[in-house]
TrEMBL record, chain A:
TM region positions: 26-48, 68-88, 109-134, 146-164, 198-222
One GO CC term on file: membrane
GO biological process terms, semicolon-separated: respiratory electron transport chain
Assigned keywords, A-Z: Membrane, Transmembrane, Transmembrane helix
Provenance organism: Micromonospora inaquosa
Protein name as it appears in the record: Molybdopterin-binding protein
Chain ranges of the Oxidoreductase molybdopterin-binding domain: 252-385
Domain of life, source organism: Bacteria
InterPro entries reported in the protein's UniProt record: Di-haem_cyt_TM (IPR016174), Mopterin_OxRdtase_euk (IPR008335), OxRdtase_Mopterin-bd_dom (IPR000572), OxRdtase_Mopterin-bd_sf (IPR036374)
GO molecular function: oxidoreductase activity
A Pfam family assignment: Oxidored_molyb
UniProtKB/TrEMBL annotation, chain B:
UniProt superkingdom: Bacteria
Keywords for this protein: Membrane, Transmembrane, Transmembrane helix
Transmembrane segments: 31-54, 66-88, 108-129
Name of the protein in its database record: Transmembrane protein
Length: 386, 141
């Protein structure tokens, strides 16, 4: 029998993986993964660009390490889940539009548009996120703002999709996967229910493998086991480096002095004077926005004690400025809560050694529960804000 | 339910509108990366997966064996996808000591080898159990 090639219709796809029972469950799990990703991403955005109402706690010191680890790993888990979900609903791509019914046609077109936005945006987020963690930027846009904007597209399109599909999804989710014996007896030789479960199990299993393959970036005991982690060893002086002194074009002047200014006062001190102040050691993580994190023992002067020593007011936000003249992270504002925390250090040493130029010599900021990009290196100036 | 759906509709549309407004200044450069995913998937990846699936179901007739081989292929494809940005690095950021610092071709090869070794073990165990069950049935008819 010769069949003429034609565009398929949804009924041509008979595999059990295309069942709404499967699609609804995958959709639910994907919703959880994207929800975690969106929530933790939003937190990270607010920490870096805090609106007035936003505060972020300083404890536990690993809090940002955990939220950003969840962000990156839920994104990794979403990759196989998204592909499985798209495979499950692929036949729907070939639904013929109801051309002769204008009202139904416009509803159909709107639904298709919302799904197109969802799929475009979901792929965009996962692909750009994956390239960003590998620090590769083969595109023309600015990653942080584009990734943030498209995150809203994903979140909104998911809500639209749930609004449209809610009745179908509810019915599918309340139908047990294990088919009844009567159904199995009616169609002998083919066990759809076990194939549906196998497809779902495989999807979840593959998501788990993907997470295991990358989680070493932040989970210490997986560091050597994850073959596709975007960092492995401890890095120079025990911590990887995200921006070298050479890349930041840092030249430490021989007469470098730390400048502390506050409304109505100013103080400066040399590195020797800074090193002569009482030193404290704290174990704090560098937790990068790219999801990797590593702990080190930092030694330096607690910022709150430095301010007291200088006679500057405490309990206020402090702006740290780097020797770096250009670049997005040449300065950062330390919120009042972090500036008052006794663990927040102006560190001079890392793991018992003097900071290398790449780690921020002569001194750098290290505060608990903060993104690595805000832990300003090569500090030149502290300004106590009002 | 109607009220919930309406609420979701309004919230969703506002979030999409907000995201679109945020993206507007970069829409030109981001557009190919937005459209690329679905086009690549719908036109190339999904049909390819379908064809491979059909061929595989002809080659492997035992359902359980087919399920495990499929799982192995899907896990391999996912590991390959995750490895792409680590293996292929066009204009990347300046070098950062300690970051992307693994031997990724080796890591990928080891990862794939572990996945397939696990699947071969499972298949062998399944075959052994099958044979024992069949033997027992033939021993005591």
């Amino acid at each position: 029998m010769i069949r003429r090639p034609r565009i398929p219709v949804p009924e041509d796809f008979t595999a059990p993986s295309h069942s709404p029972l499967v699609a609804a469950r995958l959709g639910l799990w994907l919703g959880v993964a994207f929800g975690l990703c969106f929530g933790t991403g939003l937190l990270s955005h607010f920490i870096q660009h805090p609106p007035g109402w936003f505060t972020w706690p300083t404890r536990p010191v690993n809090l940002y390490r955990i939220t950003q680890g969840v962000h990156v790993l839920s994104g990794v888990a979403a990759i196989p889940l998204l592909l499985a979900k798209l495979w499950s609903v692929y036949p729907r791509l070939f639904v013929r539009p109801p051309l002769r019914q204008p009202i139904r046609l416009s509803a159909h077109a709107l639904e298709r548009l919302s799904v197109l936005v969802l799929v475009c945006a979901a792929f965009f987020e996962l692909v750009t996120g994956l390239f960003n963690v590998a620090q590769s930027y083969p595109w023309g846009f600015f990653f942080p703002t584009a990734h943030y904007a498209v995150a809203w597209l994903v979140a909104g399109a998911i809500l639209l999709h749930v609004a449209v599909k809610l009745p179908i999804a509810r019915a599918a989710l309340s139908t047990p996967l294990r088919g009844s014996r009567a159904v199995a007896a009616a169609a002998p030789g083919r066990d759809d229910s076990s194939e549906r479960r196998a497809f779902l199990r495989t999807s979840v299993g593959v998501a788990g493998i993907a997470v295991l393959a990358t989680a070493g970036v932040t989970v210490p005991w997986l560091r050597r086991a994850s073959p596709l982690a975007w960092r492995s060893a401890a890095g120079p002086q025990g911590i990887p480096i995200n921006r070298t002194a050479a890349a930041a074009r840092i030249v430490v002047p021989p007469d470098w002095r730390l400048e502390i200014v506050w409304p109505g006062g100013r103080e400066t001190l040399s590195l020797a004077e800074l090193a002569a102040l009482p030193q404290h050691t704290a174990e704090l993580p560098i937790a990068c926005v790219e999801g990797w994190s590593a702990s080190a023992h930092w030694t330096g002067v607690p910022v709150v004690q430095l301010l007291r020593w200088a006679g500057a007011p405490t309990g206020r936000p402090v702006r740290f400025t780097s020797l770096e003249t250009d670049g997005l992270y040449a300065a950062s504002t330390l919120p009042a809560a972090h500036a008052s925390d006794p663990l927040t250090l102006l560190a001079l040493r890392i793991n018992g050694e003097q900071l290398s130029p790449d780690h921020g010599y002569p001194c750098r900021l290290v505060a608990p529960s903060r993104p690595g990009v805000l832990q300003t290196k090569w500090v030149a100036r502290l300004e106590v804000l009002r | 339910m109607r009220a919930v759906r309406l609420l979701l509709l309004v919230l969703g549309a506002s979030a999409v509108g907000y995201g679109g407004w945020l993206l507007l200044p970069q829409l030109g450069t981001a557009l190919p990366w937005l459209i690329g995913g679905p086009v690549l998937h719908d036109v190339l990846v999904a049909p390819l997966v379908g064809v491979v699936g059909l061929m595989l179901s002809r080659l492997v007739t035992n359902r359980l064996r087919l399920a495990w081989v499929t799982a192995g292929l899907l896990a391999s494809a996912t590991l390959l996808l995750i490895a792409v940005p680590l293996l292929w690095r066009p204009p990347s950021a300046p070098p950062n000591p300690g970051l992307p610092d693994r031997n990724y071709p080796l890591g990928l090869a080891v990862g794939l080898a572990v996945v397939w070794a696990a699947i071969v073990i499972v298949l062998v165990v399944v075959a052994m159990v099958d044979r024992r069950v069949t033997n027992r049935r033939t021993d005591r008819p």
